[in-house]
């Protein structure tokens, strides 16, 4: 599942690779208005799956994975440059932590009418500096507004405490600091791999992402 400001189309290359490898791959289109709404959207997709589920979330999608991953049909969790909250934590509370020197936080505009957007002029570099600007420039213009309810709602269920977890850390991330990601991965006792990539690793390194997801199917 995708994160904030984008939709599931960013997973196309990973989808193709895994589908060609024989996997049933389902894509969640999160409204990103509320956490409960995104969990419900995920639950519907999990229910439609024909096999045990590896639940994969990028960025804010990690919040949803953590909540929805408690479904008994889910066998393991994969976090891709994602938030992995503990009980009572929200994106807002996690983002309030000090950003380490030399790392960056997302260049968000002030909230407007209950939604957040990334500064379009800074989006291409912050989201995916290693992806062609013809793609990221359009993505910046086509941002999906992120609801403050989704940002501020704390998680109440923590699937990584009961399910095997895998975490791909993006070392050149300018949306979620790599230090934050390493902290999430460590406390989840996740199988962790680091990759020299921007936040949008599924766009810049789709084959590596697909291969990482496959490691959760063991």
Automatic annotation (TrEMBL):
Name listed for the protein in its UniProt record: Alpha/beta hydrolase
Lineage: Bacteria, Pseudomonadati, Pseudomonadota, Alphaproteobacteria, Hyphomicrobiales
Domain AB hydrolase-1 span(s) in chain numbering: 2-211
Species the sequence originates in: Ancylobacter defluvii
InterPro entries hit by this protein: AB_hydrolase_1, AB_hydrolase_fold, Sec-Metab_Biosynth_Hydrolase
Matches recorded under Pfam families: Abhydrolase_6
Entry GO MF terms: hydrolase activity
TM region positions: none
Highest taxon listed in the record's lineage: Bacteria
Keywords: Hydrolase
């Amino acid at each position: 599942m995708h994160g904030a400001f984008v939709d599931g189309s960013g997973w196309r290359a990973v989808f193709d690779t895994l589908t060609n490898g024989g996997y049933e791959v389902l894509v969640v289109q999160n409204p990103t208005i509320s956490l409960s709404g995104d969990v419900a959207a995920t639950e519907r997709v999990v229910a439609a799956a024909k096999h045990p589920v590896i639940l994969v979330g990028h960025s804010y999608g990690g919040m949803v994975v953590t909540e929805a991953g408690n479904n008994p049909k889910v066998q393991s969790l994969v976090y891709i440059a994602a938030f992995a909250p503990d009980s009572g934590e929200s994106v807002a509370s996690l983002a309030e932590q000090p950003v380490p020197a030399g790392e960056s936080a997302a260049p968000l505009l002030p909230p407007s009418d209950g939604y957040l957007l990334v500064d379009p002029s800074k989006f291409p570099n912050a989201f995916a500096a290693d992806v062609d600007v013809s793609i990221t420039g359009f993505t910046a213009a086509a941002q999906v507004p992120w609801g403050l309810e989704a940002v501020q709602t704390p998680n109440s269920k923590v699937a990584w405490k009961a399910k095997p977890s895998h975490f791909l850390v993006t070392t050149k991330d300018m949306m979620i600091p790599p230090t934050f990601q390493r902290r999430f991965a460590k406390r989840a006792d996740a199988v962790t791999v680091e990759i020299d990539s921007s936040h949008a690793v599924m766009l810049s390194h789709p084959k590596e992402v697909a291969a990482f997801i496959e490691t959760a199917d063991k």
